[in-house]
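Hello Y.,

Per our agreement to keep a running log of every chain we model this quarter, I'm adding this entry. I've kept the format consistent with earlier entries: sequence first, then predicted structure.
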Amino acid sequence: QGQLQESGGGLVQAGDSLRLSCAPIGTTESTNTMAWFRQAPGKEREFVAAIWRAGRTFYADSVKGRFFVSGDNVKNTGSLQMDVLEPEDTAVYYCAAGRPILSAVRNPNVYIYWGQGTQVTVSS
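Predicted structure for the entry above:
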C-alpha cells in the first residue's frame, strides 16, 4: 500500500514563510481530501488545514489567514503555504489523504494515507 511523503520543513524565524509539499510514494487510490495535521512535543496531533473535493478549504482557527492549503485529490499531491510563522507553529507536520464526509474532515481517524512527517521549527 502506498503512503505519502512530506517535504519543505526546516528552521525559520518568526515572521518567515515555508511551503510544505506532499506527494505519494507507491500506488495510492484517488481520494477526496488532502489534509495537514501537526504534533508539537508533549501535545496531541491537531488538525491544521484541509481541502475537500479540490475546492472547499478548512483551517484551524490558529492558522486562519496565515496558512493556505491546495491539493490534487486524483494524484494525492498537495501543499501547505505557511506565512507569518510563529513559534507556536513549531511541530512535526503530517499530510494525509482520505475520503471523509464533509463533517469529518478534521478527524485524523478518517484518513487512509499518511506521510511520516516533516519538522517545522520557528525561532523567536
